[in-house]
Amino acid sequence: VLAVVLFFVFFPKDLAAREAERRIEEATGRDLILGGAIDVSFWPALGFSVEQASLSNPEGFGEDAPFIAADRIVFAVAVMPLLSGRIEVRQLIFEGADLRLQAKADGAANWTFPTETTEGENETTIEDLRLDDVRLTNSMISFQGAEGEAPMVLSDVNASLALESLDSPAQLQAAFD
Fold first, then answer.
1. Dihedrals φ, ψ of 109, to 5°?
2. Rounded Cα–Cα distance for residues 12 and 40 (Å)
3. What is the DSSP string of 47-108?
4. Which of 12, 92, 107, 113 is the most buried (most CB within 10 A)?
5. Contact between 139 and 131 (Cβ < 8 Å)
6. Whether the Cβ atoms of residue 63 and residue 57 lie closer than 8 Å to each other
């Protein structure tokens, strides 16, 4: 019992969060910033919550604003796959998020992620991530098309996304203004 209590008290949550940060950056090729206080939960899955987090845009897509920024992010991962190097995200919740989607005239979009390694590389890609439950609450989504016109903006977004893999069709439920 004492060992369990000591484990919970001295669990290196900053180290664990930085490892998750490193793996997500490695898989996406983008900078992930985990800002404020980090909280950890152990049941029913290993989970973290962090305040003021953001994921950068890919190169060539407005480096002045992130792809997504959130007041709070909650994520829970399966422990056993994590120990073997795979990330299986059981839950990913963005509270107060600002999601900025952008497309270019040549068809490039900031919401696409690397799906395979180039020859000779040994990197984790976004295909290695598994997402079971992704949600946006009290969020905003903007879409800037290739024409350069004013962006379309959805506010007060509450959405839920479920997908088996990032290469398969998704189920989306959403309410927004």
1. -140, 145
2. 10
3. EEEEEEEEEPPPTTS-TTS-SEEEEEEEEEE-HHHHHTT-EEEEEEEEEEEEEEEEB-TTS-
4. 92
5. no
6. yes
pLDDT band of residue 143 (cuts 50, 70, 90) is very high
CA angle 73, 75, 77 (to 5 degrees): 165
Rounded to a whole number, what is the distance in angstroms from the first to the last CA of the chain?
A: 50
Q: In b/e form, how buried is each residue of 71-96, taking b as 16+ CB within 10 angstroms?
A: bbbbbbbbeeebeeeebbbbbbbbbb
| pLDDT score for 155 | 96
17-63: pLDDT as tens digits? 777 788 888 878 899 988 878 887 766 677 788 899 999 999 888 77
Q: Which residue has the higher pLDDT, 176 or 22?
A: 176
Please tell me the distance from the alpha carbon of residue 129 to that of residue 85, in angstroms, as a whole number: 10
Helix (H, G, I), strand (E, B) or coil at 9: helix
Distance, CA of 86 to CA of 78 (rounded, Å): 9
Give just the sign of the alpha carbon dihedral 83, 56, 101, 71. Answer: positive
Cβ–Cβ < 8 Å for 98, 70:
yes
d(CA 58, CA 48): 25
